[in-house]
Write a structure and sequence with these properties.
The chain has 402 residues and is an alpha+beta fold. The protein has twelve helices and eight strands. It has a four-stranded mixed beta sheet, with helices on one face. Helix 3 packs antiparallel against helix 8 and helix 9 runs antiparallel to helix 11. The structure holds flavin-adenine dinucleotide (FAD).
Length: 402
């Protein structure tokens, strides 16, 4: 077991996030798992509290809106907003990942805005809750295949298309919509646009029923002649075919470590609960004795815990690199792949180790096993992360290895 010390300046934030997870999230975790589509109103007050924490802090915050990509590298190693956000998310998801995803103003759209918005856009949209709409019926893993079109008409863009599986889509104030300025120009023409939730051109089609993260709403939309001001385009309107997909994809370097952090938090929750169950059953885990010389359950626990440690370290590394202006696409995908898979394997492994106690609703273990799967799907599936890692390690382009 590795005991990593949290940098001193982040300790209060991690402690507060853990308190929120313990005192607010855990007690209502089952309630909102059962009451799918009901808004967890307890989060309103909490969100204001987190806003306050973020405002009073120069290191970012506990939620997804805190991330920033540092522009310069002055040679000093920094533990900045990406790392603090990751640490906060781990604690909050130890409490409940569905509730974290439902936190006002902490959506993945907020990370996109924080990562690439201009100062004017940050000013205009900064305090709002933003969801992220990339996926379409014909474009999931292959996000370059999106069909939603954005056409310039005077001082406005007109968006037309369909977006599915938008996390917090119904509850957020804003939706960051990926659309193409010109489909004939391929990936480079894909830009993100900020659409106000009450825009009359944005029609909610339905909310999904899901296996896990039931506290979080997942919405499907149609965009029909949806008009947004020119200034709603995030980043540059230029179609730079040399830069390719870089602009839009850059967001993922910041958001993938956050999803990895969610997985790390859920994994830790399951491991801690399982350790308690094992201890109650008389199984002790001994770090001074080789795993295979211990009881089978203890050995299995140690194996799962080592996977958790690897996922945890990769996640911290990816966030730390972002804080230090270092290209982290490879590490962000490695962290997301390892943490997503580990979360699925470990939560199911914990249900297995605890037997009927793990499978029934008396404890949260079965819920965490259900919640885990999405963390290995959204923000790029397991297979897609491995593909990105392979491309980077082998120096292949997306057309050479797909
Ligand atoms: C609860 C939930 C919330 C979501 N939230 C959001 C959100 O907020 N915003 C958003 O834009 N999207 C969101 N999504 C969508 C999510 O990002 C996509 O489901 C995901 O990207 C996969 O796309 P797909 O479902 O179309 O699967 P597909 O792309 O059709 O993939 C199906 C399977 O094939 C595999 N596969 C695909 N291509 C390859 C390849 N080249 N090599 C090997 N295997 C491959 C995949 O890994 C997967 O296992 C959400 C989805 C869910 C279920």
């Amino acid at each position: 077991m590795i005991n990593l010390e949290i940098p001193k300046k982040f300790k209060p934030l991690a402690t507060q996030a853990n308190q929120v997870a313990t005192e607010v999230f855990r007690p209502i975790s089952r309630k909102y798992d059962e009451a799918e589509h009901a808004y967890p109103k307890e989060l309103d007050m909490l969100a204001s509290l987190i806003d306050g924490m973020n405002e009073g802090s120069d290191i970012g915050g506990a939620g997804a809106a805190g991330v920033r990509r540092e522009k310069s590298d002055d040679g000093e190693n920094r533990n900045g907003s990406n790392l603090s956000t990751v640490l906060g998310i781990i604690e909050l998801c130890w409490g409940d990942v569905g509730l974290l995803l439902s936190m006002p103003r902490q959506g993945l759209g907020n990370s996109a805005i924080a990562s690439v918005a201009t100062e004017e856009q940050l000013e205009r949209y900064g305090g709002k809750w933003a969801a992220m709409a990339i996926t379409e019926p014909e474009a999931g893993s292959d996000s370059a295949a999106i069909r939603t079109a954005a056409e310039l008409d005077g001082d406005e863009y007109v968006l037309n298309g369909e977006k599915i599986f938008v996390t917090s889509g119904d509850r957020a104030d804003l939706i960051v919509v990926w659309a193409s300025l010109d489909r004939s120009k391929g990936r480079a023409a894909i830009k993100s646009f900020i659409v106000e939730r009450d825009n009359p051109g944005l029609k909610l089609d339905r909310l999904e029923h899901k296996l896990g993260i039931r506290a979080s709403d997942t919405a499907n939309f149609t965009l029909q002649d949806c008009r947004v001001p020119k200034e709603a385009l995030l980043g540059s309107p230029e179609i730079d075919t040399k830069a390719g997909f870089g602009g839009a994809m850059q967001t993922f370097d910041n958001t993938r470590p956050l999803v990895a952090a969610m997985a790390v938090g859920v994994t830790r929750a399951a491991l801690e609960e399982t350790r308690e169950c094992l201890e109650e059953a008389g199984v002790t885990i001994d770090y001074d004795v080789p795993a295979l010389s211990q009881q089978a359950a203890a050995a299995r626990y140690l194996e799962m815990e080592s996977d958790y440690e690897a996922a945890h370290l990769l996640t911290l590394q990816a966030a730390w690199m972002a804080d230090n202006g270092k290209p982290n696409s490879l590490q962000a995908s490695m962290a997301k792949a390892k943490a997503g898979r580990t979360c699925v394997d470990v939560t199911l492994g914990c249900v297995e180790l605890c037997g009927s106690v793990g499978y029934t609703e008396n404890r949260l273990l079965e819920k965490w096993a259900r919640d885990a799967k999405i963390l290995d799907i959204f923000e790029g599936t397991q297979q897609i992360q491995l593909l990105i890692v392979a491309r980077q390690l082998l120096g292949k382009s997306s057309s050479e290895l797909r």
